[in-house]
Amino acid sequence: MAKTVLVVDDDPTQRRLIQAVLEREGYAVVHAENGGEAIDRLTKGGGADVVLLDLVMPGGPSGLETLAELRTAGVSTPVIVLTANGGIETVVKAMQAGAQDFFIKPVGPERLLVGVRNALQMTQLTAEIGRLKKRSTGRTSFDDIVGDSPPMRMVKALGARAAKSSIPVLITGESGVGKEVIARALHGASPRAGKPFVAVNCGALPANLVESILFGHEKGAFTGAHEKHAGKFVEANGGTLFLDEIGELPLDIQVKLLRALQEGEVDPVGGKRPVKVDVRIVSATNRDPAQQVKEGAFREDLFYRLNVFPIEAPALRERREDIPALIDHFITRFNIEESKRIVGCSPETMALLQAYDWPGNVRQLENTIYRALVLADSPLLQPHDFPALSGVAAPLDAPVSIPEGPDGEAIATQATATSTAAAPDSPVRITDERGHVRTLEEIERDLIQHAIEVYSGHMSEIARRLGIGRSTLYRKVREQGLEDHIKEAG
C-alpha cells in the first residue's frame, strides 16, 4: 500500500504543488485546510504516515498549537513543519513541540522528497527496533501479527484465550502459514512472557541425536559426548517449548516425550535421576495428525496430550484481504535491511499479487517481495518485478547496438537480425491462469515454439541458443508437433 501524506495548509495552490511532487513518487496525498481538520483526521481513524504542517494558518489553531494537541492526544505520526519564517526561534519551538523536520517555503521538490523519505524511514526503523526487541525478549503479542481478516481474527481470539493458561496448544496448517509466529504470540501474551522461548524443528533433528537434543545428556554418555548438555526442555524451563513439525518425531522418542509431558520431568541420556522442568508446550504440524494416528505413525495417547487446544492457521489464499498489509510489512522491513526506498505496489501489481494462490503461503510471499524489492528500480513495485507471476519481462535499459561497416551502413548478419527481431509481447509463461506452475512439457513446447519464431526457423541457430544438439531439437519438434511452425517461420 502506498504511504499517505497529509498536507495541512490553508493555501490550495501550495497544497496542489506539493501533491503533484509527491504523487509522482507514488505517495497518496490527502489534504486538510486547517489544524482542526488535521486533528480530526488523525485522532478519529483517518490516519496518515507523514504530516506536512504549515505553521501559520488563520481561522483556527496555529501549526504549533495543532502539533501540541496531536502529541497530547498520543498521535506519534511524524510531522514536518512548513514555515515562511526560517528564524532559529521558530525552528526550535517547532522541534520542541515534536516536529521531526522543517521546510522553509518555497520548498524544492528534491528537498521535499528527501524529508518525507527520511521521516518514513525513521518511523520504520523505530517500528523494526521495537519488533526485534519484542521478539528477543519473548514479548511478541497477537497485536503484532499482521492481518485482520475473519480467519486471522479467529486465530487471535483463540490464541488470546489459550495464552492465559498453560494448556498445551497444537497449531495445524500448511507449510509457510506462520505457525511459529502464532506460537511466539502465545508465549508473549502469556504469564511466561519474558521467559525463554525455545523453538525446535523436529523434522531437522538427526535421528541418532533426537533424544540428546531434547532431553540432554551427561558427559561421556555416548561417543562424542565430551561435556554435559542440558537439552531443549531444560533450556525452556520456566518458559515455552515450541515443537515444530511434531509429526516427524520417531515413535520411540514420542514415548519419552509423552512421559516428560505427563510427569513434568526429563531423563537425560546417561543421567542417574530425572530433572524436573516447568515448560509450556506448544506444538505444530503441517500434516493431519489424526490421519497419522490411523496410519500408526503417531501415538494416539501423545496426540490427545498435545491436541488439548487446537488452533488452525489459515492458508494465505483463505485470507487474501490480508495480503496488502503483509506486503506493506515486508516492504517496510526489507527497505531497512537492504537500504531501499520502495513506497509500495502499483495497483496492477497489487491486483496480481492478491489474485495469486500462494501455495507456499506467507513464506513464499515474503521471499517474493524480497526478490522484487532488491531488483526494483522504481518507487512502486511493478508487474515486471514479478516475472514468474506476471509473465512480463523487465523493460530493456538500452537498445541493442548494431555493428556498422566502413561506409556507416549496418552489417546485415543473421546474428544481428535475429537479436533485433521483435519478440512477442509476453515471454514463455511458467505459471498458468491460477498461478500454479505449468508442466515442464508445456513450458518446453512454448519455449521451442518461441525460439522458432524469433530465429525464423533456422534450426542450427535455435539448437545453439537452446543449448541442445540438432538431432535432439528435431526429435523434440516432432514429439511436440511443431513441424508446421518451422514451415511458417521459414
Give a description of the structure.
This protein has 490 residues and is of the alpha/beta class. The protein has helices spanning 12-24, 35-43, 63-72, 88-96, 109-136, 150-163, 179-188, 210-215, 232-235, 251-263, 289-295, 300-306, 323-338, 347-355, 361-375, 387-390, 414-419, 440-454, 459-466, 470-480, 483-489, and strands at residues 4-8, 28-32, 50-54, 79-83, 101-104, 169-172, 197-201, 240-244, 265-266, 275-276, 280-285, 309-312, 344-345, 380-381. A 5-stranded parallel beta sheet has the order 2-1-3-4-5, sandwiched between helices. Strands 7-8-11-6-12 form a 5-stranded parallel beta sheet. Strand 9 (265-266) and strand 10 (275-276) form a beta hairpin. Helix 2 (35-43) packs parallel to helix 3 (63-72), helix 6 (150-163) crosses helix 7 (179-188) and helix 19 packs across helix 20. The longest helix has 28 residues, at 109-136. It starts with a strand and ends with a helix. The model is unreliable at 398-425 (pLDDT under 50).
Summarize this, please?
This protein is an alpha/beta fold and 490 residues long. It is built from 21 helices and 14 strands. It is flat and about 80 Å long.
